[in-house]
């Protein structure tokens, strides 16, 4: 009898596995089919919105505004934009910002985003907005760049009609402050060697740290450390210049100008989340003798398979064009569709004060609204270029950053990842471990991309304090 019962239980277990397998396969099939239909529709919608915005931009701003699906002839004459060509063949439209422009910082994913039909068919047909990128530059292009930059002096134009013009969003042009918004707590004097720089992730803000971790740091830490939480260029309360390309170097230069230089920071710890991890690695490599510890939360590192284009591979990993999970669906709309994502920003970001008010009204302040505020307070130009030029554009460089951290930086490396993260999977942290074997990897159970911090802020604050106290000196 006992043998029969055990055999029955075993059979039920096998049947359960088969049932789960069938359900999983069916669910994936449905998700793939819906994704194909939805994103095929978005491909068409983005084309239509392109023409709509061209007309509205012309009516409101008295000039045709270029986009990344414009023809070269349409974009070459526009203010702040130039046509880069190499040997009369490949062409590229580049917006000139106030800082020194390096063409290699411009991600080709801004131009090369094939439709979902092309991806599925595996043909060589290209979408109409695919424009080959170039690596070199002719003397003619260099001359144009120098003329456009005009000595490197930043202009402060008024916001575009589709952007919010409140004091926060228009901070660059209204107050002409050429620095980021920085929230600082802890010791106030400069004669101190312990500093911590917090870098938030994509479409977030410094409040991700100041509303969670800062209230939970111990008095001893605040008496010895200076804690700097920044709003990255284009996000939160920081300037949002629409002529910026939001490249890695532009972000780093603003961090230097806003935190390191004015506060005479000579050595520091870094804590970064998601997209911020890329900037943290770039900053650590730039200041190898200054970084005392490097703490990365959900770092987006996907090693590029042989034969794949790094930027394109990264785009497909962080934005897989799937309707489920929802966080991946949102990332896909933001990454693949220039005009759809601009429409979303028009509805959400331009009216962020309304959404913030409604959030407080509906929740009656039972939950904090800092996540909503961080999500809504940016511009399409900032989000679009940061996503492509920082996340996708650095895909081929991250491996080099990690190798430099492993071989040349004398600092502790700690990585935290939520087990249930559906946007940046746990494998990314495992990949970091392969490049930096000394890295301490912590997988937090039942936590995702946001709850890796939110909801466990007290525990994480203690973990950070321990990391800083035991960090090896440079």
Q: Could you name the key traits of this structure?
A:
18 helices, two-stranded antiparallel sheet, Rossmann fold, single chain, alpha/beta
Topology (elements, then pairings):
Layout: H1 2-61, H2 72-75, E1 81-86, E2 90-95, H3 116-121, H4 139-149, H5 171-175, E3 182-186, E4 195-199, H6 207-210, H7 219-224, E5 226-230, H8 248-260, E6 268-273, H9 275-286, E7 291-297, H10 310-318, H11 326-336, H12 338-348, H13 352-363, H14 370-376, H15 380-392, H16 398-408, E8 412-418, H17 427-435, E9 440-444, H18 457-470
Parallel strand pairs: 4-5, 4-6, 6-7, 7-8, 8-9
Antiparallel strand pairs: 1-2, 3-5
Number of domains: 1
- Please name the CATH topology: Rossmann fold
Mean pLDDT, rounded to whole units? 81
CATH class assignment:
Alpha Beta
Shape: globular
CATH level-four homologous superfamily name: Alpha/Beta hydrolase fold, catalytic domain
Note poorly predicted spans: 71-100, 123-156
Largest sheet: 7 strands, mixed
Radius of gyration: 24 Å
Termini distance?
69 Å
The ordered string of helix (H) and strand (E) elements is: HHEEHHHEEHHEHEHEHHHHHHHEHEH
| Oligomer type | single chain
CATH architecture: 3-Layer(aba) Sandwich
Helix content: 40-55%
* Class from secondary-structure proportions: alpha/beta
How large is the share of residues in beta strands?
5-15%
The number of distinct β-strands equals 9
Individual helix count: 18
Organism: Deinandra increscens subsp. villosa
Protein name: AB hydrolase-1 domain-containing protein
GO molecular function, one term: hydrolase activity
InterPro entries: AB_hydrolase_1, AB_hydrolase_fold
